[in-house]
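Q: What structure does this chain adopt?
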Amino acid sequence: MHQLSSLDTQFLDAETSTTSTHVGVLSVLGPTTPGGQLTVRDLRTLADGRLHLVGPLRWRLQEVPLGLDRPYWVDSEFLDLGYHIREVALTGPGTDEQLAEQISGLAARPLSRDRPLWECYLVNGLTGGRQAIYTKVHPAVIDGLTAGQALAVLMDTAPQPRTVPHRLSDEQYQAAGALGMLGNSAWHLALLPARLMWSSLRLAPYLPELARALTVPGADLLGTLARRLTRRAWWWSADEPTAGAPTPPDAPFNGPATARRRFAFTSLPLGEVEAVRSALGFTVDDVVTALCTTVLRRWLIDHDALPDTALAAAMPIAGRTDPQFAAAGHRLSLLPIALPINEADPARRLQKVHTSLTAAPQRFRAAPATLVRDFGAALPRALRGLISRTPLRALSMPTPPVNLIISHAAGPARPLYAAGIEVTGNFPVSAVSDVAGGITIAAMSYGRHLDVGIIACRNLVPDVWDVTGQLHQALSELTACTRNVRYLRPCRRPESR
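A:
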């Protein structure tokens, strides 16, 4: 038996009628000749010969009776590729905007819990003889940062498809018996009081900071009292809480999210991104984050909603090694970072981004978000489901209260091919929620370009294409900064002002 981890279960429990946590990749193919296009039958045949390379895609959930404990993974005896791999067509003319609108609708649909937690769609009817493949998967199976690696396994690095020996995955899990699951649940419940006490003690001094983000009545007073008591207690050895993640300011894209989504995508020349990185002495993460900061600043200015303080963002970092990319389970940590949207100068904005990313690991250790997640993981699953429908929902969420999530992952450096057809773009499709913000910006390198996908709640950010379009101007702005020798060195420590 293989039981889901606490974090994986939190990603399941965080889903509501307006929030789905699955992530995906939009792969654009072609162009091809009319007779050489990929068919849904070709795609199913390709998947049938490769899915054993990514064993978790065959697994489905088995719930514990009465929802007393975390569910288990069970290997599916029969994988219905007719259900998992489907076909849709654009009505014409087949523009990128129409493709994005189609993906918006597909991304808004939750994954069925009765089947392995993934779906794939072949999209026909794009301009220029192109096609697209949209694949979405639950992060409990494969997290977003390693989805590109799994995609590379299912495709080829040459036009001629390779022969893959068929061998079942080494990790196969049989259905768990009710008595065995209940026995494990009883053991976990016996340990529950100690786990809750330890998590509560660690979380108590941070309640005031948490209250600023959650606006829970009475939490600030309770946290102040708890901090005074724990400081005087002989068994408390922790230092006074240090500066954690920035408090999220009010922003138009933060608020009650609906189930409706809006998606947009674009590609940036990776060579220009690397040229900025090299000339100014920063990292690619610095440059990509600075680009995101710039487009958010411009969007907020256009909507007359620029706050006085930096935005609070979270950046996922992978915790997997390369051999673990096809193993089930979420291996991500979320680093809290500050986006200096109130800095008008683009070069200084990049310097402040670098400072924030450099300090992020220390801020991650000091931030209460990780403790909140640990506390939520210690709660019984039935109670987490109840909390997810209350103002304390953040306790059951796998992400901290932030304005938005920004991610950047390294994708395949060489071109990929699906049944001999070249993949010309790989655009990440992430998720949004009430707690983690109504907009998410995800970037993934592929070949010689940086593919960016932006998804948002349609009611909060209806003009998501405007955000995407600003990325090219933001890159040109940073490129112009490389001509000024004043900005040739990154900021090594936080500025004094």
